[in-house]
Amino acid sequence: MIEFTLWDILRNLLLATRWTVVLSLVSFLGGGIVGLALLFLRISKRKSLRSLAKYYIELFQGTPLLMQLFIAFFGLGLFGIDVPAWLAAGLALVLWTAAFLGEIWRGCVEAVAKGQWEASASLGMGWLQQMRYVILPQAMKVAVPPTVGFSVQVIKGTALTSIIGFVELSKAGTVVTNATFQPFTVYGLVALIYFALCWPLSKSSQILERKLNVAHRNH
Amino acid sequence: MNYHFEFGWLLEYYPQIGKGIGITAELIAVGAVAGISLGICCAWVRALGPAWLKPVVAAYVELIRNTPFLIQLFFVFFGLPSLGLQLSELQAANIAMIVNLGAYSCEIIRAGIQATPRGQFEAGASLAMTRFETFRHVILVPSLQRIWPALSSQVVIVMLGSAVVSQIAAEDLTFAANFIQSRTFRAFEAYIVSTIIYLALAILLRQALAIIGGFIFPRRTAR
After folding, report:
1. pLDDT above 70 as % of chain A
2. Cβ-defined contact of A67 to B174 (cutoff 8 Å)
3. Which of B24, B180, B185, B191 to mutate to test the interface with A (most CBs of A within 10 A)?
4. Looking at domain B14-216, which CATH architecture does it have?
5. Which residues contact A10 (CB under 8 A, 6 or more apart)?
6. In chain A, which ranges are E strands?
7. B111, B125, B197, B220: least buried by Cβ within 10 Å?
């Protein structure tokens, strides 16, 4: 029987961590773009668009991410589209992330004082101009801490893609466990790697939030 | 597209689906009660507990909040037996959910406790209440009332997260969907239907928690 050293295990896990990082980045960036579109729908003047975005968000926040992954992976295949695991994983995570980011950002836009809308309207600005020059710059400041905080959820969410067969950190953990029969060590290490990825983000989100609160108290 | 949707045949599998819903419900019921209790204990430690215990609880909370639930579940189910702790799938799922919700609810409840004005402690002491009585009546209950909405959504999140316990063969709703999918190869129908059931469960759970909240905290003036 082959003996595996701790370094063998760790090296394989770290190699797989690259895919966790890549998938997290893709989901976060893609989700950010779709989430921004969702935000615009959610705060648009047309009621139909607003409720469309509301139902989208309700649907994605009210169902398990795992089910969304299954539907993307098994479901799309039925339409004759050959869906590789990475595509299903990326697609589901982007749509899921977008729902959460859209809702977080809506809260931030609504946190901007109503007088700002009226003031910019009285300057003869159109809706797009108001958003671009007055509302979004102020909302963005409030949005940074919860957005950074949510990125932790995205990284943890990528762990589920192992279930549909995308080889990232969690899947590598299972594979290495099956080879080494050391689940305690392997899953312990996997958890520590996730922790090393997520904790700095959690911490910086907290620090940013504290800074923002201090800035607001001075007004 | 030449795929025909049929949902009628799913009725045949109602025992599996029913059992799956039952287990998901049982998991979240046990997880919520025990998890929130654990969260209250941890929040007490972080707010008023002995100094040596505080960093232990802080480490527990940070560790759980920054690792995926799936890995926590695998660690409990596959990892702990090597320490001599054999667990059934359901026990492992229960433990993982309690430990997970415990950490999140600790943070939420602690935020509620921190928002309590300092004067409340002193007011409690001036009424000759012991430290425990003050915590129980003056600090904890109003704090819980304040953060109940946040706690409710966390419980819903944990319920949706429980879909992954099917991966250690705990026979929850997702397990039923996987079973049906592997029997019939009708993946789309099986997963769509179970997704809708999850959505209904989430909405129901949210309503139930709102009602329970109204029950535990009757007509207190919220402040």
Report:
1. 97
2. yes
3. B191
4. Orthogonal Bundle (1.10)
5. A189
6. none
7. B220
In angstroms, how far apart are the furthest CA atoms of chain B? 77
Judge whether B133 is closer than 8 Å to chain A, CB to CB. Answer: no
Contacts of A178 in chain B (CB under 8 A): none
Number of folded domains that form chain A = 1
Q: What is the pLDDT of residues B32-73, one digit of tens each?
A: 999 999 999 999 999 888 999 999 999 999 999 999 999 999
Is B20's Cβ below 8 Å from some Cβ in A? no
Pick among B4, B74, B194 to test the A interface (most A CBs inside 10 A): B74
CATH number assigned to the domain comprising residue A126:
1.10.3720.10
Q: Does residue A1 fall inside a structural domain?
A: no
Contact predicate B174/A66, CB 8 Å: yes
At B86 the three-state DSSP class reads coil
What are the two backbone dihedrals, phi and then psi, of residue B15, each rounded to the nearest 5 degrees? Answer: -60, -45
Q: CB of B72 within 8 Å of any CB in chain A?
A: yes
The residue range of the domain holding A61 is 6-217
Q: What ipTM, to 2 d.p.?
A: 0.90
Which residue in B has a C-alpha nearest to residue A155's C-alpha? Answer: B68
